[in-house]
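INFO batch 0412 | record 1 of 1 | parsing
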Amino acid sequence: MAGAADSREMTLERRAQLIRRYEQACYQMCYYLLRSEPLAMEAALAAVETLLSDACFYEQEEQSRLEAVKRTAIRCSLKRIVV
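INFO prediction complete | emitting tokens
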């Protein structure tokens, strides 16, 4: 039973390590769109949380992952724009 829990934790740890490689680029995209540090932080956090739970993200090649980060950052940023 403990082995299954350890396996899930390792998977989550590996996902977190992979996501960390994209955090800065994600924030930069959000900031570029929003021009507000607090809103960019909020959007980037939402984007990272979305990607963290996306199993397909981890199976993609590097370029596809970057495109997914871009799409997710844009979507999360647009949700924070007040019209």
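INFO post-check: Residues 32 and 40 are 8 Å apart (CA to CA).
INFO record closed
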